[in-house]
Each structure stands twice: as C-alpha cells, then as structure tokens.
Amino acid sequence: MGNTSSMLTQYDIEEVQSHCQDLFEQQEILSLYQRFCQLDRNAKGFISSDEFLSVPEFAMNPLSQRLLKMVDGLNFKDFVAFLSAFSAKASLKQKVKLIFQVYDSDGNGKVSFKDIMEVLRDLSGTFMSDEQREQVLSQVLEEAGYTNDSFLTLEDFIKVFGSCKPEMDVEIPVD
C-alpha cells in the first residue's frame, strides 16, 4: 500500500474506509492514494515533512509547523485518517479534536493558556497585539468557566470551543 507502482486492493480500500469511519467513498480513497503516491516521491510508503511542504497550500498555512509535527511520517492509512477531519462528513467533535491536537503541541493531552496564545499569535500575526489576544482569550475562557491558569483537556476544549462551529470544510486537491 506504500509505493507508487502498487495498486490498492478492494480489501485495502475497505480497511482504509473502516479506519476513517467511512468518511470517504471508494473513489475518493483511490484519488487520495494517487495524491499520496505523488507526495511520496521516494516511494517509501510514508510522507516526510519536506514532502508535505511541497504542497503550496500546506506550506503557506500559518500553522504548518504545528501540523508538520502531526503529519511527519504518515503512512497512507494514517494520511487519510488525518484528512478525514477536513471532510464535510466529519463530525464537529472530529474537527475540534484535530484542532485540539494542533493546540496541544507537546502532546500531553492538555492545552494551556500559553498554548492557545501561541496559536493565536501564529494565526493573527501583527494584526493583534499580545494584550488584545490575552484579553479575548481570557474573556472566552471566563465565559466557559475557566481561568488563564486552567489546563483544558479535549472534553474541556470541546466545551469551550465546540460551539464555535469551525469552518473546516475545505477542498482537498487530489490531482
């Protein structure tokens, strides 16, 4: 399932579909496999950070360095699982879980005020001052019953940010 000369069997397709909670149709998985093989330039069976950065949309993303920690070394099945959070069929919980992982850069299962501030800084750049970011974040946390000293678990994160209904339905280029 890893190199460009192999084809996916029906079993492979069904296994990937099951791994991704059937969020992709068979044809979509075949298209994603073609894209995976294009990115896996050395036919190693996984995609490196450098190969991900060859996708202009990914490289230009202000969160690309955080995302790279999540995607470096993904095999095809995990590549599709990662992309499934961007599917229009993915649940809000699946999308918020991906966002949580972006914020939880050290992977400890908790997001701190500092973690959220770093992401906000990456996203807003010079458009907002640190003081403005702190003020907005403090207000959001306070309204949800948390303080700047709180550490948010995934469940807490869903409680605080799950009602924001993030727009993550993006078109995934497969050609």
Describe this structure in words.
This is EF-hand domain-containing protein. Keywords: Calcium. GO terms for molecular function: calcium ion binding. Residues 27-62, 91-126 form the EF-hand domain. The chain has 175 residues and is mostly helical. The protein has two domains: 11-89, EF-hand (Recoverin, domain 1); 91-166, Recoverin, domain 1 (Orthogonal Bundle), CATH 1.10.238. It has ten helices and no strands. It has helices at 10-19, 26-39, 49-52, 56-59, 64-71, 76-84, 92-103, 113-124, 130-143, 154-161. Helix 7 crosses helix 10 (154-161) and helix 8 packs across helix 9 (130-143). The two termini are 19 Å apart. The model is unreliable at 165-175 (pLDDT under 50).
What's this entry about, in short?
This protein is an all-alpha fold and 175 residues long.
Keywords:
175 residues; Recoverin, domain 1
Based on the structure given, which CATH architecture of the largest domain is correct? Answer: Orthogonal Bundle
Provide the CATH topology of the largest domain: Recoverin, domain 1
Number of DSSP strand runs: 0
Structural class: mainly alpha
The domain count comes to 2
Mean pLDDT: 86
Q: How many DSSP H or I helices?
A: 10
Gyration radius from CA atoms, angstroms: 18 Å
Morphology call: elongated
What is the percentage of strand-forming residues?
under 5%
Organism: Brassica oleracea var. oleracea
Keywords: Calcium
Protein name: EF-hand domain-containing protein
GO molecular function: calcium ion binding
